[in-house]
Design brief:
- With 200 residues, the chain is an alpha+beta fold.
- Helix content is 28%, strand content 34%.
- It has helices at 2-24, 39-42, 46-53, 69-79, 141-151, and strands spanning 82-92, 95-104, 109-115, 121-126, 154-164, 167-176, 181-187, 193-198.
- It has an 8-stranded antiparallel beta sheet with strand order 4-3-2-1-5-6-7-8, covered by helices on one side.
- The radius of gyration is 37 Å and the shape is globular.
């Protein structure tokens, strides 16, 4: 009799332990409560929040440093379609700018002042075109810049459509990477370098 009672007590205790364990442990199919979820599932961690607030500006709206002459020509073509006929550096309203003259599609001239750091248009004004500037050249400004930099690697600082010994030319000023300043005369119909001289 005592043996049967001990066995019954042991079985009852084991049953209670199993029942208790079954109630307290979450089943595999039950979803975890909000308190037991990992921090990454419930809310972003600090590093994720930081990454979100430091999302970079899209490439197309970002300006990477000062505009060079080619980038200035490209920007001006967005603002005032036509043919660039002159370009130079200056200051306007306390800002370093590219001053770019354009023969517009309606045959009028306009000068645009473009911020060299941000590519923003600072202002524009009418441009009195010279006789050479009243006809779009066969060799456009970007081609003249390219031809000049192949001959004298460096930075173009000025560009002007003019005449040299009866030939319409691009006069291009380059600050050479190797030192010195050079003026090149480039045939505005063929890109041939007609003359190159040191300007300093």
């Amino acid at each position: 009799m005592m043996k049967a009672q001990r066995t019954l007590t042991a079985v009852s205790s084991a049953f209670l332990l199993l029942a208790f364990a079954g109630c307290s442990a979450p089943s595999e199919t039950e979803p975890e409560s909000e308190q037991t979820q990992s921090p990454t599932a419930a809310q972003p961690t600090q590093s994720e929040e930081t990454a979100h607030t430091q999302t970079p500006v899209p490439t197309e709206t970002r300006i990477a440093g000062p505009l060079d002459a080619s980038a200035a020509v490209g920007r001006v073509m967005e603002l005032a379609p036509g043919a660039v006929v002159e370009l130079g550096m200056g200051r306007e309203r306390g800002v370093e700018v590219w001053e770019v003259g354009v023969l517009r599609e309606d045959s009028t001239g306009v000068e645009l002042y473009v911020d060299r750091q941000t590519a923003d248009l600072v202002r524009e004004s009418p441009l009195q075109l010279s006789s050479e500037q009243r006809t779009p050249p066969a060799v456009v400004a970007l081609e003249a810049i390219g031809a000049a930099l192949v001959t004298v690697p460096g930075s173009v600082t000025e560009l002007d459509l003019d005449t040299e010994r009866g030939v319409v030319v691009w006069e291009v000023m380059v600050d050479a990477d190797a030192g010195g300043r050079f003026e090149l005369y480039i045939d505005a119909t063929t890109t041939q370098i007609l003359k190159q001289e040191r300007a300093d």
